[in-house]
Design a protein that fits this description.
Blueprint (H helix, E strand, L loop, with lengths): L6 E3 L4 E4 L10 E12 L5 E11 L6 E2 L3 E4 L8 E6 L9 E6 L3 E4 L5 E2 L4 E7 L7 E5 L2 E6 L3 E4 L8 E7 L3 E2 L3 E3 L1 E2 L11 H31 L2 H15 L8
Parallel strand pairs: 1-8, 10-18
Antiparallel strand pairs: 2-6, 3-4, 3-7, 5-6, 7-8, 9-11, 11-14, 12-13, 12-15, 15-16, 15-17
Length: about 250
């Protein structure tokens, strides 16, 4: 499903597609409007669908041969969109945000593959070549002289919340960049797979030590020092005993 960017300007046409001639094949675009937003402890914005679910042509949008067109989109069109067939098959869902701000950040709306080059564009309604600052997870990354920033050979470390700022225009809303195919080697070390492997490595290293310690303690408990002294004393007393033999 398209479009390619998660943010669009208000009062611009929004074209949604499920593929060529998808409407003829029985596919239709649905949406669930978003009523609330929340932010996780890591600063990741989360949309909470709580509005009405409806299909293109039901008081919004115009059905086309490949999907749906929304003319002069408004903030009320901010929603989660997806394609659905007559058999109730569903495509991936897209969170599309219609912005009234002067600046938006164009970024991939779907997950990108590990190793891809990803270009982020900071743009106004009229230009996409203005000097812009880019941020990730609230921290400054770099300044794009022409409003562009490219992430080369992306990995799990590039996944996060991005935004941009143009000094003469303002700041964009945030967008989350997902990276698909990131492995434990490139993903942050809080990954649960890495934690499991770490625990197993420590078990392998310390298991022989634990086993030898347990064996030593067992021997110690069976032969405590006091008992060995008693045995030595008894043995010494036996050496002083004289046995008489009568013939």
């Amino acid at each position: 499903m398209s479009p390619a960017s998660a943010q669009v300007f208000e009062y611009r046409n929004l074209s949604l597609s499920c593929g060529d001639n998808s409407s003829v094949d029985g596919w239709r675009i649905f949406r669930s409007t978003i009523t609330t937003f929340s932010t996780s402890a890591t600063g990741v914005p989360t949309v909470n669908p709580g509005g009405k679910t409806s299909g293109c042509g039901d008081k919004w949008g115009n059905i086309t041969s490949c999907g749906c067109n929304i003319y002069t989109s408004k903030q009320a069109d901010t929603a989660i969109y997806w394609c659905e067939s007559r058999a109730k098959q569903r495509s991936n869902s897209l969170n599309i945000s219609v912005q009234e701000t002067a600046v938006i950040l164009e970024s991939p709306i779907l997950a990108v593959m590990k190793g891809d080059n990803v270009t982020l564009v900071c743009k106004t309604k009229d230009r996409d070549d203005l000097r812009a600052d880019f941020y990730k997870d609230g921290s400054f990354l770099e300044t794009g002289a022409a409003g562009h920033m490219t992430l080369h050979n992306v990995s799990g470390y590039d996944e996060g919340v991005y935004k941009c700022h143009i000094s003469t225009e303002g700041e964009s809303a945030t967008s989350f960049l997902f990276v698909r195919g990131a492995t434990a080697a490139t993903a942050p070390r809080t990954d649960w797979v890495w934690l499991v492997l770490t625990v197993l490595r420590h078990l392998v290293v310390f298991s022989p030590y634990c086993a030898s310690t347990f064996l030593a303690v067992s021997i110690y408990r069976r032969n405590p020092p006091g008992r060995r002294k008693d045995d030595e004393a008894t043995y010494g007393q036996n050496d002083d005993v004289t046995t008489e033999h009568h013939f």
